[in-house]
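Quick sanity check, Transport permease protein:
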Amino acid sequence: MPIDLSEFDVPGRGRGILDVFRRKYLLQLLVRKGTATRYRNSVLGWVWSYVKPAAQFIIYFFVMGVIMGLDRGVENFPVYLFSGVVAVNLFNEAFGNATTSIVDNRALVKKIYLPRELFPIAAIIIAFIHFLPQLAILLLVCFLIGWTPTLIGLGGALLGILLVTAFALGLGLLFAGLNVRYRDAQNFVELIRMFSTWTSPVLYTWMLVQNALKNHEWMFHIYTWNPLTVAVELFHQAFWAGTVPPPAAGEPDPSIMPDFGIAVLIASLICVVMLIIGQAVFRHFERSFAQDL
């Protein structure tokens, strides 16, 4: 009598990220575990989700706003600064957590088979959960200074979050696979995270970059295609632009980069390509995760 095996999976084989959607319960367990253990045995607990970005903001504001004088050159500079900081913080935490997710869960990876992509994706979700308190503070400050939300602006913010998480997931899958066999890959991750704040218009405006590269326009275009640059500018348009008066006739609008629509499309394409490359590299190294760990 023939046996129907259509409902069974071949052990050790999967369909990558698509398998995650078939195991939502496991994903929920990993997310709960990550959020529950993050601040375990900590006195302040979840308060650190507010303290860390607040300390970072104070340092950046003092150096760039007070010492460098951008506080006088950009109206509502604290909102401009913090809206960029929260976007980059989401990327840095998501990317960093995804990179170490396989190594951090080596006990599970070595004992049982389950889609390994569950770990980087759970790390991205956990980073997003810790991003929400920062976003709540940003929204509160914007409302206090008279911010009026718009559907286009809020849609842009959602697109910015999507770009950040997709870019972080693609890079996270790539380096998570490499990090299992080559632990020095994590050093490259730290370099990328360090550069992320300075290679996107968080501490300065895109117009300063345009003026510095006026004789090398192609370099400025590459700068504007960076998914983080696009995401930060989407956050600026969503939160900061609604707190400042529109520019006078004939003056450039500091909230909209040149050819911004094209930059959004190219940045989205880069995120898709990075997801494909990251998944391919991850699946290549996945075969020997248990042995390498």
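Posting the structure with no commentary besides this: DSSP finds 14 helices and no strands in the chain.
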